[in-house]
Each structure stands twice: as structure tokens, then as C-alpha cells.
Amino acid sequence: MKRNYQPKKMSRDNVRRESEPLSWKYFLVTIASGAVLVGGFFVAARTHFASINYCIKNSELKKQLGELEAEKRRLILSKEIALAPAEIKKAARKLGLVEISAMNIETFGAPQTRTDADTRPLVIKTVDTKPVEKPRAVVAAESQERKAEKSVKQAPEAAGSRERRVSKTGK
Amino acid sequence: MLVVIFFGLWIGGIGVRLVYLQINQHDALLSRALDQRRETVKEKQLRGTIYDRSNRALAMSIRVKSLYADPAEITDIDSAAREIAKALKTKPAEIAAKLKDARENKRRYVMLAPKLEDDAVQRVNEVLESKDLRKSDLPKFAGLHWTDDQKRSYPYNTLAASVLGFSNSEDVGSAGVEQSQEETLRGAVIKSWQDRDRLGRVYGESETEDREPPKDVQLTISHSIQYKVEEALENGVKKANAKSGMAVVLDPRTGEILAMANYPTFDPNRFREFTAEQFINRSVHDSYSPGSVFKLVTYSAGVNEGAINPDGFVDCGNGRLRIPGREIVDHHCTQGLSYVDAMAVSSNIAAMKTATAVGRDKFHFYAQRFGFGTPTGVELPGETTGILRAPNSWNGDSLASLAIGYEIGVSVLQMATAFATIANDGIRVQPHIIKEIKQADGTVIATPEVRKTQVVTPETARVLKRMLRQVVLTGTGKRAQLNGYTSAGKTGTAWKYDAKLKKINQEKYVSSFIGFAPFENSGVVIAVVLDEPRVGARDGGQVSAPIFQEIAEQILPELNVIPDASIKPGVFTAAEIPSEIEPIPSKVKPGDGEKAAVTAGKKDELKNPKTAALKSDEPKSKTPDDKRKKKT
After folding, report:
1. Under a CB-based contact definition with an 8 Å cutoff, are residues B415 and B525 in contact?
2. Burial track B583-622 (b if 16+ CB lie within 10 A, e otherwise)
3. pTM of full prediction above 0.80
4. Which helix (H) or strand (E) holds B40?
5. Taking Cα atoms as reference points, which of A163, A112, A19 lies closest to residue B485?
6. Considering only CB atoms, which chain A residues are within 8 Å of B565?
7. Tens of pLDDT along B202-228?
8. Measured between CA atoms, how close is A45 to chain B, in angstroms?
9. B35-59 pLDDT, tens digit each
10. Rounded CA gap, B365 and B363, in Å?
11. Looking at this predicted complex, what is its ipTM?
């Protein structure tokens, strides 16, 4: 038979749990963790808003790029319009330029089969000639002759002009 | 304890609610959120550019804006219409009527000004600015919005218009290369989404489809050569008072089409102002009876088959030849004539005798080998096959008619290709107009595959070249002599079939000259065809050869072809050039040949009513010279 051994009733007031005082380390860790968490939230929020800001800027830049591309195409088109052969021809004519064609080119190639049409000779300048220099004495004599001729010619002209003047004043 | 329970329930309630929202209501809430911030955008990429061989843009698209109105956002339509009309320089009543009609029918999209360019957009924005209005987009005017659009521009206006074609208001190619290369040039529609904040700023975007870069097409056409050809053709057509004219310039070695001109033409920038008839590229679309230029095929067949000796003589009898149903009279060949001279003066009897010596089947075979009766395969829409009937459907005199270019329908391009074959030592190179297809960054995606066929032997080609050279030196093509270059070619003058009269019209001709230059190592083949020249001499040697001369003299220096002759062409009078137009046969019997020709004309008319007028019939003609001869 078992015997129950009941412990003596003890007053609760007498029982005391040993309470360990919270270490200041725990406080620091908790505060630091909290700070990190909160800081993390701030950083995340900041990053999020920064990314949105960058996205907005990116989209604006994309739009600008598109506009610049469109402008570039418009400029290319304007350039092509300005460089159209008809426009260039108009401008060239204004400047007095002549169109290049085979008609403007003197050719020196070996003649092929000659025809009736071929009978007209080409005017080809083959040698660049310079007149021979005359001796100085000859040049001086010639200039004297020319002077004498001039004076002979001028004399009757001068007389004529005097006569005309007289007739005008006579009126 | 109560506090703990309260907080526990509270947190638990929140948790349950969160689970409900996050899991059960997830899709509904997500779509609601997306609706609030996300916008789907459809953007049409710009249509590809068409370049010439030197990378000059012949057709290109630019970004423009279209102004539309939402009548639901406009309170006072009449006053709004007045201001809009002032900005757009239109009538207020028209705009008011449009807006009222749309409001009654509950339409929220009324196009007011389509495809405005940048300067016009800025002007409209300035004029329509309401300072008190708070609106995120331009113009600052209630109910008005801009939408992105694109506009097709052709900077050189009419240049190569019939080759390029045009794209319509929906940016769909409707003629020419624009139509044939629609799949390549069409700008893809790209769907994308944009996330916007409460101020309407885009902070996120992405494309839902892969963006394929737009493709550009580079042509073999040279804008400079094209301009010169068009100018020479226009002058020639006006001078001869012709109904129309066509010209093709080919590189015989590569088959590249350097220029293709039609006159009259149109301006693709203003395509609405022209009729559909004017959009047709007649050089590939229309077929006509070539007349004497087709003798090239006749003599090629004869020489290649050994049926004639090119250095020998042809016996023309007394200048008359009896063929089934009629008698042919040839004043050029009254006794004997060398084949070279026969070609030079365009003798019909010599050509007919050559064809007879070749035989029906062989003649048909050579015509096919030269590419007649089948499309050339050039990358242009609506190309004609021409008409080449099978020998079993020929009549008694069909072979004789074919020998001199009747009872057959050809296009200018087909005929030019035949001459290019001879110029290229007998090798036929398929003509093509597309040089390459490339991406916007210049990466080449595709180049055309060019078929080459040896049609006649190089020896035959050399003989034919010699014969064609004689045409220009002493024959009907004297006016095609060039300054500084040798040339060769053949004239052609064919009577036209009149669909109204249902017979040939003795007043209407198709006059042509097709040739190449220089004689050796030919750089270009030039075909010039005038439809119904009505002033002065009207045969090919008189009206088309000078155009050939003008074109060749201008483009050969540009192509850096070295001059190979010092010949200065003389000025020839009409009397100095052998007439090509054949005299009227002495006894014309309404034989099978005529019927066949008429049938051929009808067939083509059924196929192509627009071009039926270009058909011609039997080789009967009358010139002033002939009339004089008859009188004497």
C-alpha cells in the first residue's frame, strides 16, 4: 500500500522567484534592431520613390528621344527635298552653270568606224603657243610709228570737234 | 486579460481580412489597381524607307499628329467650332456640324485635322490655348486632343512616281514598290503599357510584343539617271505631241534597272488629285506590238540556228513577197541585200524570209527564250505577261507577222531585256528593281536572286551587235549616234489596233528605239517607246532615237563609262534616214492573219481594257515618201 506523502502546505508569500534583472545589452540589441528595421523601411521607401522618380525621368527621356528621332527624320526629309535634282538644277541655272553631258565634252579617243557624220573635223587644241619676243629696237620703232599715226588721226578730229563747238555756241 | 483578448481578436480580425483580400479578392483588386494606373498604348511603327541605289531617300515616313475632338467634353459647340476653325483656317459651320452630329450619335472621336506636321501643331497649340483651363495634355482647349500618326512623303515629288507608287491614307501601299513590298515596308503595331501617377506622369512602361525593327528597301534606280531620263522623255513626248511615253534604262550585265520612266506621270504626295489611270506603270503593265524592234529575235533565231549566213545576201526578188492571204511590198529590198543592210534599213521581206528559214516551232522557242509571253519577274505589281500564242494556234501568215513584230504583245521591259541579252553576249539576266532589303541600322537582310540564261551563243550575239551597229551608222537609227560613244540599236514603228474601230488605225503608231552603248562592253541598254506621236515624222528613228541619244549622252559620263569614239553625230534630215514605215500591200485580202491579230487584240483587251488601245495589227503603212513614189 502506498502512502501518500503530502508536502506541507507552504505559504505562497514565502515563495519568491529569483528575478534576474534585464541586462542593458538586451535593450541595446532591441533598440538597434528596431532602428535597423525602421531604417530599412526608410531606405526601402526612399529607394522605391527614387526608382519611381528615375522611371519618370526615363520615360521623359524616352519621349525626348522619340521626338528627336522624329525631328531627325524631318530634317532628313527637308534635306532630301532641298537636294532634289529639280531643285539643284534650278539653283544651278540661277548661278549660270551649264549641265554636263557628252555634248560638252571634247573627246580624244581613237575613232571607230567612220561615217558620213564623222567627216567634220574636231577642233583640238594640241599646242599652247607663245609669240616670239621681238627685239627692243623693233618694239621702240613700232611704238613711235603708232604714236605718229595717232597724232595724225587726232588732228582732224580735234579740228572737227572745235567746229562742232562753234556751231553749238552759234545757235 | 481582457486587453490581451481584445488585441488578440483585433489582430486576428485584421489577419483574416488580409487573407480574404489577398487571396479571395486578389484578381478583382489587382485589375482595379491596374485600371487606375495602367494604360495600354498601341503604337504603329514608321513605314520603311525606300532608297535609291546611292542611299537617297525616295519615300520616307515622318511622325505627325492628328487633331481630334471629343464632343462630350465640349460644352458650347458653336463657340468652340469658331475658335477651332480660326486655328485650322476652315469654316466654323463645317466643324460645328461635325461635332453636333457626333454628339447626337454619341461618338467620342471626331477627326478635325489629320496628319499635321510639327510647325502646324505648334501653331494650333498657340492659337487654341485657354489659360484658365487645367488640362494635362495639349492643346489646352476643352475636348481637343492630339493623336500620334505618320505621314508618307516623297521628297522628289514626281521622280520615279510610277515605280514607287504611293501609300494611301491608311499607310497601305497602293501602287508600285509601295504595293509590291507592302509586307516588308509595313510598320508593325506595337502594344505597350504605361503606368501613370496621379499627375499623369509615366513611371513604368513595357512592351507586350517584341519590337521588330522596320525594314527599308533599296532600289537599283539611280535618282540622278531617273531624273535625266524623265526629263528627256517629257521633252520628247511634248515635241512629238505623243499621247504618252515610256523609257527603261537597264544594266545588261547585272539586270539592274537604273531608270524606269513614264510620261505623263503623277505626284505621289498629292495622289488624290490624279486618276487611277495615271498610277499605272506602263513600262511593265502595258503590252504593245513592237514592230521592227522584234526583228532582233528573228535574226537572232536565224543566226543561232544557222538558218541564215549573216555575211550572205538575201534575195528579195522584186521587192514583193507572197504570204498566205496577202502580198508584202518592200521598197528597201528590191533585189539582193546583205543581212546586215537588211537589218539596217529594216527590210520586212528579209525578216520574213529569215523567220521562214527558222521555222514555226524554233521561232516560238526563241521568242520564249528571250522572255516573251512570260512576266520578267521584276518586283513591280501588275506586270503583263505579254501575248505569245502557241504555234498550233497560228494562222498561215502568223510567222511572217511575228517576224516583223506583229501578232505579239510585249512590254517595254521585256523588249529592253531582249536587247540586254544581246548586249550581254547572249546571256539573259533577269531584270530587277530591288537591290537589297535592309534594317534601319543598315544590316542587309535579303538580296534578290537573279536568274541567268544563255539564250543565244556569244558568237550570235556578236553578229547581232554588228547588225544593230549598222542600223545606227547607216540605217534607220542614225539619230541615235552619240557624241563620244559608239552605240547600236533598232528602230520600230508599229501601227496600233484601235479598239473602237476594231481594226488597225492608220493614223496611230507606237514608235520605239531600243539600243545600247557603248558598242563593246555595253554599259546601258535604253528603251524608248512613244505612243501615238502626232507631230512631224513619226517613226521610231525620228522621234524615239533622239530621246535615246539625249539620255545616253547624259548618263554615260555619269556612269563613268570611258568615251570610246570621237564621232560627232551629224544633223540628219528626215530624207537622209531610210523610212521604216512599210508601204501598203498591193492586194490586201481579209485573210486569217488579220483575224488573228484582231483576236489577239481582243484577248488582251479582255485581260486589260486599259491597255487595249496599245494593240496594233498588220504591217501596212503609208508614209509621205511612199505617197510621193506612188504619184510619180
Report:
1. no
2. bebeeeeebebbebbbebbeebbeebeebbbbbbbbbbbe
3. no
4. strand B38-44
5. A112
6. 107, 109, 111-112
7. 888 887 666 677 799 999 999 999 999
8. 16
9. 888 888 888 889 999 999 999 999 9
10. 5
11. 0.77
